[in-house]
Amino acid sequence: MPVAEFALIYRYFSHLGRGEAVDLSVGDDCAILRLRAGERLATSVDTMVEGVHFPPDSFPEDIAFRAVSTAASDLAAMGARPLAMTVALTLPESDELWLHAFSEGLAAAVAEYRLPLVGGDTTRGPLSICVQVMGALPMDQALLRNGARAGDALYVSGTLGDAAGALAVTAGEWRPSADHAQYLLERFNRPRARLELGMALLGSATAAIDISDGLLADAGHIAAGSGVRICIDPARLPLSAALRSHESREIIERWALTGGDDYELCFCLPAAVAAPPGTTLIGRVEAGAGVDCGLALESPAGYQHFDHH
Amino acid sequence: MPVAEFALIYRYFSHLGRGEAVDLSVGDDCAILRLRAGERLATSVDTMVEGVHFPPDSFPEDIAFRAVSTAASDLAAMGARPLAMTVALTLPESDELWLHAFSEGLAAAVAEYRLPLVGGDTTRGPLSICVQVMGALPMDQALLRNGARAGDALYVSGTLGDAAGALAVTAGEWRPSADHAQYLLERFNRPRARLELGMALLGSATAAIDISDGLLADAGHIAAGSGVRICIDPARLPLSAALRSHESREIIERWALTGGDDYELCFCLPAAVAAPPGTTLIGRVEAGAGVDCGLALESPAGYQHFDHH
Questions:
Q1: A12 FRET partner, CA 20 to 30 A, in A2, B59, B89, B105?
Q2: How far is A174 from chain B (nearest CA, A)?
Q3: Largest Cα–Cα separation, chain A
Q4: Per the CATH hierarchy, to which homologous superfamily does domain A153-308 belong?
Q5: Which residues of A touch B306 (CB under 8 A)?
Q6: CB pairs under 8 A between A and B
Q7: Per-residue pLDDT tens over the stretch A56-115
Q8: Are strands B265-269 and B153-157 parallel, antiparallel or unpaired?
Q9: Sign of CA dihedral B68, B74, B80, B84
Q10: What percent of chain A has pLDDT over 90?
Q11: Topology, domain B3-138
Q12: Domain ranges of chain B
């Protein structure tokens, strides 16, 4: 990378690198992070490619925020305390305005999730963003996919299907009111990783996953990992007012069950445990295998991201 | 990502995820790593893009091995003990043969560096590989760029300029003997991160960096970080027999001073400290600023990677 570009990026990004766990940030061969005594490291990586994970005309601020959110969502799904992140950015050309806007989205995500940016690189090529998040877990606790037991109750956070609805709006297939459209697009462009909820569930939830591929597909990962059957009641799915403004209940339910990119948490609690606020009971865990929602859906195996719609 | 492709990748890659520090590998929302008591985390990320960091006709085994080496080299430059890595792979199409060959290169790197592969993702797009490495450092030690002092001696590991020579061979600009050509291409395609050396230098070296952009550029980072002047004697540069077979001493020195991609370590030791085997004294640290090698070179600011040659 030409020296001038590195200097530019360093100017925008280096101030985002401060945090409690950060001993050394951007500027040497590695960043150095400090865990507390008795903690383990949780880490995950997510790549977003232009034209696959976001439309080519997306705002750089949204691309940055959403890329961090999707990676941070994996920390939330493990119940991890956020420590720091690195961002590897591949850019077709050096564009100072674009980089500035991108850095504003990154700064918003750093603040929102308390995930200081401690390293990264920038390379020339088709636009993609690779975010690696690091978090801390107690030595003996983590929200995994394999602990669900028959008799557990199934919950989700927030509302489902909003991102799928937003894609229908973007594609011109649905014209809700301006307020509703704006709400849905915000949900797609600025998903919120449920880090506080994940940490609150640590020690009580028997299994958890974040909904990136769609509720049926992701609940299926819990069912497979835990060796159980998961029954979902479509009538209980939490839906936003914006999504409920669609005329077809069938389409709404399909979006909520199979649409991805909502980044809510799906988790299981023993029947006697009270659920945290902002979450909704949507089903139960039984002996058996697979996921049953009482409906035959077109694409039950998962969500193919926006360009396949 | 279609389920079938995920299954394919999981089949190739999941067995590479075992290691002493690995509590949980591929298969959940995050991997979980365990540091020893009194250790900190060192982490770095490197992206390799086809056509920028490696030629389009590179073997997938070499692409994988080299991508891991360049990232592991940052751990070496910090003196960190390798813990684990994640790999985010962007692929233009699902090609089982390519993936199989790529996984063989990854497996070789996992074994070479003891860096189990604990997570990653695969996305559709132009070929690029983003490797995030994680290592462990003692609470109070690290090889940084800012500790060099006037009076220190300057060393490098291995030999320099081989990767630059390999690029000249690839470009058809130089035809050394078949043995020499093979040696140079192996040095470019299969660079070795100097992890053992880095760990051995911890506690004695005052500054260290890995040579990715070229000796002059990377020594310049130490000079800038430490507030010192670095003097390099071109007559002392360690050169392979293959490189020395080139007819022009001027070109050889230019490659050794400004060619990147060798991934050797450049480090400073107090004058009284003996250097480890396999390293060469090439200069000294003085009061002042900048890097001086007694030559005026065409591209002293750094190395522009193969496609700019």
A1: B89
A2: 25
A3: 61
A4: PurM-like C-terminal domain (3.90.650.10)
A5: none
A6: 186
A7: 889 999 999 999 999 999 999 999 999 999 999 988 877 888 888 999 999 999 999 999
A8: antiparallel
A9: negative
A10: 77
A11: 60s Ribosomal Protein L30; Chain: A; (3.30.1330)
A12: 3-138, 153-308
